[in-house]
Structures are given as C-alpha cells and as structure tokens.
Please model this.
Amino acid sequence: GESVGLHLPTLSVQEGDNSIINCAYSNSASDYFIWYKQESGKGPQFIIDIRSNMDKRQGQRVTVLLNKTVKHLSLQIAATQPGDSAVYFCAEIYNQGGKLIFGQGTELSVKP
Amino acid sequence: GAGVSQSPSNKVTEKGKDVELRCDPISGHTALYWYRQSLGQGLEFLIYFQGNSAPDKSGLPSDRFSAERTGGSVSTLTIQRTQQEDSAVYLCASSPEDTIYFGEGSWLTVV
Model:
C-alpha cells in the first residue's frame, strides 16, 4: 500500500518561538490538504485544512500555506507551546472524495 | 459517541490466529478509512469505503486482510493467519465529505 516509511525529521524549537513545518506533496492534481497532529499513543488529530483554490488559511495559532507551483505545504505554529510537541503529518486527497495519502511526518520538540 | 470509536484498543494474539478489529464511525459520515501505522512510522492506507460505492482496496497488503462495512456504518477489518509483521496500530477514520477524523486506533501485537 501507499505509505510513508521513513525516519522522521525532527524540529526543535524554544517555547514561545514560531515553528514552521514543511511538507512536499506528491500529486499536482490534489485538491484538498490536511495537517494532522499525532501525540504518542494517540490517533491523528485534525489541525487545519486547505483547498487547492487557496494559498493561505489561518486558524487559532496555526497557518497553512500552499504553494501549488512547487507542490509544497507548510504549517506555521505561532508562540509554540510544550503541548505542541508531537509528530505532524500533512495529507492530500486527489480526486475529491478519494483516499487520503499521508506525507512524511515531522517530529516537533518544544523546549521549555 | 462524538468521535470515531475503535475496539479493541489493544489486542495481543498468537501468530496464525485470526483477528477482527471494529470501527464505529461518526454518525452520518459516509466515508470510512482504514490505515496501518507501524511504530515510529507514517500512515499506510489500507482501504476506503464511500457510501454505496465499491470500496478502494488498493492498500490491502495481502489477501489475509479484508474489511467490510455493514449498513453504511460499522466496519470490521479482519486479518487472517496473523504474522508478526502485522503488529501495528490500525487506525480508522470517517468523513462526512472532506474533513477526515481519526479514532485512537487498535494496537495489535502478534506474538
């Protein structure tokens, strides 16, 4: 099956700093993207989504940027807190309503 | 309940035994997904149900794996003749249209 089976990259930030997590997606026809947060021992938790007709979307403390030209997504977390420590995954759907394909996760570590 | 519910939360089984994992999606969600996640790894797509359409089974790793969704709601993932490499977390997710919500997973250990 399709999967991500790689050693996770890590990002270490100081509490209060802003974090930027990057993701390259695979299919230029993808029309919907989601960022998930996964804490140890738990299922992925929805953070924010964006459609392909947008290039930016903001939530509470989080912003997702979409660059379709280079097939790149980023998740920005403002004023990072220790509770933000987790693995973050981007995911894409192509053929709207189709299966969700996950990208490589990034482990975020927040130092107090 | 309000979220996707999975059972059992933990299962230890002997190699060669069959296991069934259950998923109760969020009420009204037409789409249901199964994923597998090995320790420290990403999420591997297994199967996808959408309404009354034929399921997308393209991610099932072998014919030992199968899944059903009865009445457009509850789904069961069955693994026959389990192998040690089947040890993983099996995650179920459901969706009303686009946003996809995950359960907490069923942790399977094959000994």
Observations:
- Confidence is low (pLDDT under 50) at residues 1-6 of chain A.
- The interface with chain B takes residues 1-6, 8, 32, 34, 36, 42-46, 49, 89, 91, 93, 96-105 of chain A (CB under 8 Å).
